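Project standup — Tuesday

K.O.: blocked on the structure for the chain from last sprint. Re-posting the sequence here as requested.
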Amino acid sequence: MDVVAVIGVLAAAGGAAWVLGAPLRAGRYEAAVGAHAAQLADLEAAKAARYREIREAEMDYRTGKLSEEDWRAIDRQLRAEAIEVLRKLDALGAQERAEADAARAATEAEHAPDAPDAPDAPAAEPASADRR
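H.V.: unblocked you, prediction finished:
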């Protein structure tokens, strides 16, 4: 009888620890999401800045402030920088999607009822040779 009581107390303590620890587990996820959001915002700002600089360089060329040779060199450099920023954005987006999928799968696994992995498929109807 004492063993049953000890197991019950341990189970209750474990359940309470799990419930009380939920905000701490969520905090780590939110901190990671916050870091990605900050990095995403920085990259978006860098992208906008490169686009703006490309437009300004083109305007300077059209108004005669830059020679064609200077404009082409500046434009080539700015476009290369913009492409690098876009690649970083793509990589960050792919990473975020993978992390979001993993988090969603973990959440679904935590909240899934204790059931078999795949439900039994309904039996297929036997094929009839009489069908026309």
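K.O.: great, moving the ticket to review. The chain has a mean pLDDT of 79. Residues 68 and 112 are 64 Å apart (CA to CA).
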